[in-house]
């Protein structure tokens, strides 16, 4: 991994403002709904807005190769290269490119695009292939890691006895990919420290996924009803069952309802658990909804709750903060980077149902002044994650210039 920001000649500096041709490689992208896909979409759209020519290589919705075509993502036109993919059987929507075809597709896309820089969003398949062929051709590669190798185990369909070996292999393969790049980034300092320890690399750069706060509707002040909300994939590592069990420990007089937004392989299990716990009349599974509907749910909610143990940042948490919501979150991985205990919400030990219920009660019973203080702390806290900073930093990496402070 080379270091960004080396000294540049005057002729190179003169070119530093010209538009770039950028190829983003993403193993998950629209219409997928998850944090990594949302980040890649917002990054691509933001780069288009800044005048760059953006191409995206991502899985197709079927096992056939689609001709390069313009798609409008986040309101901006970009060129999509949809690669033949198959659905991963243990997962409800995840699609992937056959690994042994990744280099072939990488060659074809790079031949067509001839980018100035390649930015891969994972080291799994598409990113793996692109990094190797781009490196062979002398095209600089930036890698952003959104992946926790341990998360792959929920969908591996392999015997549990193989888990340790699968994780070891996955991180070793990541190290080989990252060694081919100009820079490796990940959303937070804590995630960067984790990656450096686990993969054995140095110089991982923390760059927030970023958020456009103007897209959200913060309503500061007490709510008419006690509503908690979770937004994200309904998968095992999100530990939504912990939130449901915590609801059973809340004072019935609080009359708390719970909005669950998102789809995933655990939805049916969670719906069954909701019925078993006697919460069916208080919990609503919304599935996948429009951005407008999501903003409305954020604006009426009282508190955002996330029990996940595998967040490298959590765009949904930042969206909630931009909507002026206090947050109750598991004290795990990167969530403490966003949620400062006692300031914009509270942390709880992962999996601890009793403490989670206590933290929710603290927020829901706060007086108007205290509740508004937490709301404003969320708004202040998310300001440093403005998408403008994120785009400035990635542009500097693409151009091999010093990073903005």
Automatic annotation (TrEMBL):
Cleaved signal peptide residues: none
Keyword Ligase recorded: no
Highest rank taxon of the organism: Bacteria
UniProt keyword list: Glycosyltransferase, Transferase
Entry-linked Gene3D superfamilies: Glycogen Phosphorylase B
Glycosyl transferase family domain segment(s): 223-376
Domain Glycosyltransferase subfamily 4-like N-terminal: 33-213
Pfam families from the UniProt entry: Glyco_transf_4, Glycos_transf_1
GO terms classed as biological process: carbohydrate derivative biosynthetic process
GO molecular function: glycosyltransferase activity
Protein name: D-inositol 3-phosphate glycosyltransferase
Organism: Microbacterium keratanolyticum
């Amino acid at each position: 991994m080379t270091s960004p920001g080396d000294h540049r000649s005057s002729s190179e500096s003169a070119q530093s403002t010209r538009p770039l041709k950028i190829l983003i490689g993403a193993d998950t992208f629209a219409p997928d709904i998850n944090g990594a896909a949302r980040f890649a979409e917002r990054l691509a759209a933001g780069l288009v807005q800044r005048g760059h020519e953006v191409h995206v290589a991502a899985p197709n919705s079927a096992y056939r190769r689609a001709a390069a075509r313009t798609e409008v993502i986040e309101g901006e036109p970009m060129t999509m290269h949809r690669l033949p993919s198959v659905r991963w059987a243990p997962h409800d929507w995840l699609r992937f490119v056959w690994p042994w075809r990744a280099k072939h597709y990488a060659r074809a896309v790079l031949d067509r695009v001839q980018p100035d820089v390649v930015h891969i969003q994972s080291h799994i398949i598409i990113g793996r292939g692109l990094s190797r062929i781009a490196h062979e051709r002398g095209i600089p590669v930036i890698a952003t890691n959104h992946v926790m190798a341990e998360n792959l185990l929920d969908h591996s369909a392999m015997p549990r006895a193989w888990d340790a070996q699968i994780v070891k292999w996955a991180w070793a393969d990541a190290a080989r990919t990252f060694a081919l790049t100009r820079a490796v980034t990940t959303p937070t300092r804590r995630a960067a420290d984790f990656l450096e320890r686990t993969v054995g690399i140095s110089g991982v750069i923390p760059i927030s996924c970023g958020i456009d706060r103007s897209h959200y509707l913060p309503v500061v002040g007490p709510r008419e009803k006690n509503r908690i909300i979770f937004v994200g994939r309904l998968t095992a590592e999100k530990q939504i069952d912990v939130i449901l069990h915590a609801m059973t420990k809340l004072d019935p007089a609080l009359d708390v309802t719970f909005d669950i937004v998102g789809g995933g392989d655990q939805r049916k299990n969670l719906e069954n658990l909701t019925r078993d716990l006697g919460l069916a009349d208080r919990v609503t599974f919304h599935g996948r909804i429009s951005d407008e509907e999501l903003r409305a749910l954020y604006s009426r909610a009282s508190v955002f709750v996330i029990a996940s143990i595998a967040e490298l940042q959590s765009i949904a948490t930042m969206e909630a903060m931009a909507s002026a919501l206090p947050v109750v979150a598991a004290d795990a991985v990167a969530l403490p980077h966003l949620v400062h205990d006692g300031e914009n919400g509270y942390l709880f030990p992962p999996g601890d149902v009793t403490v989670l219920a206590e933290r929710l009660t603290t927020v829901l019973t706060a007086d108007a002044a205290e509740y508004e203080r937490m709301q404003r702390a969320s708004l202040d806290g998310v300001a440093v994650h403005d998408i403008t900073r994120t785009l400035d930093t990635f542009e500097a990496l693409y151009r091999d210039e010093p990073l903005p402070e």
